[in-house]
Amino acid sequence: MKKYITTPIYYINGSPHIGHAYTTILGDVMKKYETMRGLNVHYTTGTDEHGQKNQTSCQESGMELADFLKMRSDNFRNLFDKMDIDYDYFVRTSSPEHKAVVTDALNYIYNKGLIKKKSYEGLYCVGCEQFKKPSDLDERGFCPDHQKAPVLITEENYFFPLEEHRQWLIDYIKSNPDWIQPKRFAKEVLGMLSEPLEDLCISRPKNRVWLGVELPFDKDFVTYIWFDALINYISSIGWSSDVSKNQKFNELWSECTHLLAKDILKTHAVYWPIMLKCLGINPPKHLIVHDYWIGEGSIKMSKSLGNVVDPYEVMDIMGVEPLRFYLCNAMSLNGDSQISIDLLKQGYKQLANNIGNLQMRVLKMIAKNLNGLVPSKDNLTTKDKKLVETISNNFNRLYNHNESSLELISELSSEILKAGDMVNAYFASNEPWVLAKDETKFERYQAVIYTTLDALRIIASAMYPFMPTISTKILSSLGINEKPTSKFAPFELTPNNQTIVGDPLFPFIG
Ligand code: ME8
Question: From ligand 1's centre to the CA of 97, what distance in Å?
Fold first, then answer.
């Protein structure tokens, strides 16, 4: 079975920060989780290279446009490569392939008579690249996300009426309760739909914004950046208005999940499904929406506000995989989450004390007493068996869900720490270092070591989507060279496997 996962495509007017890293890591963790379950996943991410704020950044840089766009887009791509993101396609909206699909979609909608030209006056937030209603602004009249007053703009533009689709969208959300996850965001969207929808302005005059896709029906305008950017989700899998060419597209689209934060909920849950409807395409299967990482000042981390955590700095301190695990584990499911270098270091130390110490202690012990060989599993007690079976059942349950979700990924990460705690407690209470000194207790010693190693094997396999290299290192330290699957059968570790004490999985950090 196929699955298609997307991240937002990111603006290139600044450097990527931990918020961009998070959504892209989440998608990669979901991809690895689904791949372990035997699904064939197509994963896309990329950069949103048009619009007024990218244009201003480019002008300020003094660089040639194409060089500037490539340099900034590469900042994101290089970060994602460094974070081991296994994307199948990296979207660039400046690419001819993407632009051709935007043009095709615009022509299709225009020829159906769904676009009209009129004069408009409104408050425009350049940070959001959106017109704002007074009710979108705070008590000072500022955009709450960008902490700036929008500017009043009067211009003639092309518009895409949305209101006639409002009731359809309300009905769709109500009859598809899993469409937007978590459910509280579906409620928020229904709130947005409780008032009539204004026409969406889908053009910008070139004398204000020249960085964009020219409207096919009026060369004095470029396409509104959001109309252009949302199309990436269909352009990257080859949509065409000629339906006979859509075989690959149809296969993937029916299994599409968009990942995004709540800042772009309206564009994805209101504009996008209506655009799709007018193109004759069903809504994506799911929108998975997360809250914000909150930086200094307790406001949403953002390039424009300068309160960002730099993922490169974090990776230099703790490496990429502990960062991947931390972000998936520490993002709250009920609201925004604070992030700082100190909190990240605490998360790293928790992993080191839990999984890292356990692996090192048990392997050093058997290197000393058992020539590094996995002992026999012949004398496991009911309690030993229960520990391994509980851990294996818990992971089997978590890998048996119909689909990955934010809750599932979070629960899986917590279950890894919980299982580590259980095995550490088992190890401490059975005192194998005492058993090792008494020849009459040798069988018991072997049983405790086998139980610990087998539980560690299962935990390492379950860790794979978050920490693929560390998971593989643990498995090979137990003499296992196969890639983990989503079957967590107990007692499968082969006695007499040669174990290896390698370097610490989580080296000491200050
Ligand atoms: O909105 N916490 O791009 P963008 C968590 N180009 N996630 C965060 C975050 C934070 N503090 N800050 C950013 C755009 N993100 C458009 C999208 S899609 C067709 C066009 C993540 O560079 C999160 O995924 O502002 C959020 O939705 C996205 O980056 C916004 O990135």
Answer: 23
Question: What's the pLDDT tens digit per position in 301-324?
Answer: 776 677 788 999 999 999 999 999
CA distance 19 to 401: 27
Closest to 77 (Cα-Cα) out of 104, 56, 49: 49
Virtual torsion, Cα 157, 163, 168, 169, nearest 10 deg: 70
Q: Per-residue pLDDT tens for 115-138?
A: 999 998 989 998 888 889 888 999
Nearest-CA residue for atom 13 of ligand 1: 19
Cβ 225 under 6 angstroms from ligand 1: no
For 45, the enclosing helix (H) or strand (E) is strand 40-48
Question: 22 C-alpha to center of ligand 1: Å?
Answer: 10
DSSP string covering 81-104, please? HHTT---SEEEETTSHHHHHHHHH
Confirm or reject: Cβ of 48 under 6 Å from ligand 1.
yes
For 346, other C-beta atoms within 10 Å of its C-beta total 12
Tokens, residue 36? 């372990």
Q: Report the separation in Å between the CA atom of 21 and the middle of ligand 1, taken as the mean of its atom positions.
A: 10
